[in-house]
Write a structure and sequence with these properties.
The chain is mainly α and 94 residues long. Helix content is 60%, strand content 9%. The chain has two domains: 4-34, no CATH class; 53-93. It contains three helices and two strands; from the N terminus they run ββααα. Helix 2 packs across helix 3. The longest helix is centred in the N-terminal third of the chain and has 21 residues, at 20-40.
Length: 94
């Protein structure tokens, strides 16, 4: 990537390491070009889905189930149990 050639005393070419000056010049130029290309791209704004209390509580319950370390959980079981607990906590709160 940073290879340059130099003629040595015998008339043949040898690879030399670039200096920090040439390396930083190359990196700065490529970073600038990359930044300009990125800025020109049209990006769609990402849609943000609101976090409902039910989803938040289900996530907390799921974290607890996973942290408990039970190895026999299937994803469907964890999801159902998490939402069951979230619904229970929301019903009990009223």
């Amino acid at each position: 990537m940073f290879k340059t050639l130099r003629i040595i005393g015998t008339g043949s070419l040898a690879l030399i390491k670039p200096t920090s000056k040439t390396r930083s010049k190359y990196l700065t130029k490529s970073l600038e070009e990359e930044a300009k290309k990125f800025a020109k791209q049209k990006r769609k704004p990402s849609t943000v889905k609101e976090l409902s209390p039910r989803l938040y509580l289900a996530g907390q319950a799921m974290g607890g189930f996973i942290a408990a370390g039970r190895q026999t959980w299937r994803m469907e079981e964890i999801k159902k149990a998490s939402f069951d607990w979230a619904d229970y906590m929301l019903d009990d709160d009223t």
